[in-house]
Amino acid sequence: MAAVPYDRLGGHIWFNGEFVAWENAKIHVLTHGLHYASSVFEGERAYEGRIFKLEEHTDRLFYSAETLGFEIPYSRDVINQACIDEIARQG
After folding, report:
1. Which H helix or E strand runs over 14?
2. Quick one: CA torsion of 55, 91, 15, 73, rounded to 10 degrees?
3. What does pTM read for this prediction?
């Protein structure tokens, strides 16, 4: 299996509430999640430009964060809109 060269990917990513170039999305080397894998995430699929069960995924993300005692600094609506905007940006 070949490794993905993440340092050479192009495009953009939603990072700290805004879209930034992939190579500019950086975290501090001492970030807790980096060292201890303390994180939550949702994998979502889009079909014909629409995210499948977007609200359910976002609800699960918030539930997972709450379970681990994490506070998500964005509302569900902001996260949903960022997901929709990302799909639109990809064309």
Report:
1. strand 12-15
2. -20
3. 0.83
Q: How many CA atoms lie within 13 A of 50 on its CB side?
A: 4
Helix axes 54-67, 76-90, angle to 10 degrees: 130
CB–CB of 68/50 below 8 Å?
no
Q: Which residues face 47 on adjacent strands?
A: 50
Q: Which of 38, 18, 22 is nearest to 30 (CA)?
A: 38
Q: What is the pLDDT along the chain (91 residues), one digit of tens a residue?
A: 678 787 777 888 999 999 999 888 899 999 988 899 899 999 999 999 999 999 999 999 999 999 999 999 999 999 999 999 999 988 7
What is the DSSP pairing of strand 46-47 with strand 12-15? unpaired
